[in-house]
Amino acid sequence: MEALGNYLHLDLDIIKAISKYDYAALSRLNKSDLGAGIKACYLSHYSIFELIVKYGYENALIFEDDVDIELNITDIMIEVHKNLPNDWDLLYLGHCADFHSQYVKTITVYELHKSGHPQCAHAYAVSAKGAKKLLKKLDVNNPKDHIDMDILDLILNKEIISYSIFPPVVVQFKGMNDQSDVSPGSVGETYPLMKSTLLFLGYDPNVPDPNIPDLNISDYNILER
Predict the structure, then answer these.
(1) pLDDT at residue number 222
(2) Positive or negative, the Cα torsion across 56, 60, 63, 69?
(3) Which range of residues forms the domain containing residue 170?
(4) pLDDT of residue 185
(5) Is the CB of residue 66 less than 8 Å from the CB of residue 178?
(6) How many domains does the chain have?
(7) Collapsing DSSP states into helix, strand and coil, what is residue 117?
(8) pTM (2 d.p.)
(9) Is residue 111 within 8 Å of 189, Cβ to Cβ?
(10) In this predicted structure, what is the pLDDT of residue 221?
(11) How many Å apart are CA 17 and CA 40, to the nearest integer?
(12) Quick check: 104 and 114 in contact, CB under 8 A?
């Protein structure tokens, strides 16, 4: 993530995520029957929404730490922001699936859609208005499902206004050094990027790097202001 941020000139804050072994933090969610890992992920994202409101960010881009990004992401996002409707709460730069979305506009080789059924939470932007809505509407003390699925329910109920970029400009990227207990054995990109920054920088997901510690991918979240 530091290599991506440095090369792409992104102003990243690397935020320590909640561990599934942090029983004190997870006690906040004691009413929920979800597993500890799901609770930890939920609370990690929720705490970033709290930071957005606390520090008065106009918007923020949230990355999980297992992503790859389009090499020309800055140019892409300049064009997206020119065409993004003012009513947006969320903008998915990456998603595992988003069927039943509604076409809004073509932007260079990408399309902006009104989100239909977006899943995953590895790369999405949140407006200040959107963060306040999420804090108000998500039941953090008793979540019903994974964070992306609870957010999806809000989108489907038209309580959150969300847009998605097609194809995704940020994808999940698993390497030998960042194996996950969520997707064990998965190596490589979930979707191919047009111009992968990690591949451009010479990162090979199939070759273990002895200089990189073996981190669980759920250990960190990334906030881009």
Answers:
(1) 56
(2) negative
(3) 1-201
(4) 52
(5) yes
(6) 1
(7) coil
(8) 0.88
(9) no
(10) 60
(11) 8
(12) yes
